[in-house]
Design a protein that fits this description.
17 strands, 6-stranded parallel β-sheet, 9 helices, 2 domains, Rossmann fold, Dihydrodipicolinate Reductase, domain 2, 9-stranded mixed β-sheet
Length: about 375
């Protein structure tokens, strides 16, 4: 049985997985008094040692040693998506709380095992994206809650890129089951839509597969042809419990777009919401009867935030309460995405079995302290 997290002292964190994304977490951990990093682990011990050498007071361990460490209260799971569920289950079995990169697990069935195990063990589950806690999404949420657009009617969420193989040296996993534009980028957009408009009750989807192969555009494998075994262009309509309708447009096929990443339409106005893959950005309002767009002042969210702020927020969450970037939201978003793909293949609307309380809003706050510029050295992807 895990111990309740003590919100009055720094949360002691161990990281499993020392790939490229860890640098962003380490940079922000240095700025957050609520977090104390104590250990790191990776299947490649040299990568873990490089991180430990760059961060005072951190020791490099094997995965099993980190899971057994008495001073690790929460495991930050930065492994590949296929390992998210298995590593989370091992951490929970060791009595530790877990915060993972998105998605919560490879499938909703596996994600349910994680949540059930955590409930039984009395530990906490959190999950990226924590971008929803930044000033961009939270200022948009406050505008909706304050009635600036009247009654919400609909939203659109758009993510367009011609393909990650143009820049990623090893893009294979994006084009295999578990990858694709929806499962890769959808967690940011679906989590933002639920934060803004509440849970989803049903979906309908359509998808296409336009090219059977892709050509790697950079790195040592430049010119190599890789197969595409996923839907590379996905659209979906989400029906929220509130009655609002959201339209998803996620593509690895199209070239570009001039649309806002997210727009929310209401009876009294429309909001242009910034990129949900970022923590900040301008929120713009076109009010009924206005002549032009108005940029709203920043009014909510964690200021100057970044990856890892969800863990600091979790550390401050009262025992027994669900974190804002919590496992329940991550599970709901995963079910929504799986269901859009299922609907695209069977041609019928799919009801969403799970629900989640709309996370509590984040008041305008600064959690981080200033640190000298210099970055994290010695960490490779």
């Amino acid at each position: 049985m895990g111990k309740p997290l003590d919100t009055d002292k720094p949360l002691k964190v161990g990281i499993i997985g020392c790939g490229a994304i860890i640098a962003q977490y380490l940079s922000n951990f240095r700025r957050l008094d609520a977090i104390e990093l104590v250990a790191v682990a990776d299947l490649d011990f040299a990568r873990a040692q490089a991180v430990a050498d760059s961060y005072e007071g951190v020791r490099a361990l094997s995965v099993d040693e980190l899971l057994a460490a008495d001073d690790v209260e929460l495991v930050l799971n930065l492994t590949i998506p296929a390992a998210h569920g298995p590593i989370a289950l091992k951490a929970i079995a060791a009595g530790k709380s877990v915060y993972g990169e998105k998605p919560l697990a490879a499938t909703t069935a596996e994600a349910k095992q994680v949540l059930d195990a955590a409930r039984e063990a009395g530990v906490v589950v959190g999950c990226a994206p924590d971008t929803v806690l930044g000033t961009g999404i939270q200022t948009a949420r406050k505008a909706i809650d304050d009635g600036l657009i009247g009654s919400p009617i609909s939203a659109s969420a758009t993510m367009v890129t011609s393909g990650h193989e143009r820049w990623h040296p090893n893009p294979d996993f994006y084009y295999q089951p578990g990858g694709g534009p929806l499962l890769d980028m959808g967690p940011y957009y679906v989590s933002a839509l639920v934060t803004l408009l509440g849970p989803v009750v049903s979906v309908i989807g359509a998808a296409s597969h336009t090219r059977p192969e892709r050509v790697i555009g950079s790195g040592p494998r430049k010119g190599e042809v890789i197969p595409v075994n996923i839907d590379s262009h996905v659209t979906g309509v989400l029906v929220h419990a509130s009655g609002a309708l959201s339209t998803l447009f996620m593509s690895f096929d199209a070239v570009s777009t001039k649309s806002a990443n997210i727009e929310v339409h209401g009876s009294l106005g429309t909001l242009a919401v910034p990129d949900p893959n970022h923590f900040d950005g301008d929120v713009e309002l076109f009010a009924l009867g206005a002549d032009s767009w108005q940029t709203l002042p920043v009014s909510a969210g964690y200021v100057d935030s970044g990856r890892g702020f969800g863990i600091a927020d979790l550390a401050a969450t009262a025992p027994g309460s669900e974190p804002r970037a919590g496992g329940q939201l991550a599970y709901h978003a995963l079910e929504v995405m799986e269901s859009v793909l299922a609907s695209a293949h069977n041609g019928s609307a799919v009801s969403i079995k799970s629900t989640v309380a709309r996370p509590e809003p984040v008041e305008l706050a600064a959690l981080a302290i200033e640190v000298p510029v210099g970055g994290v050295q010695g960490i490779s992807s």
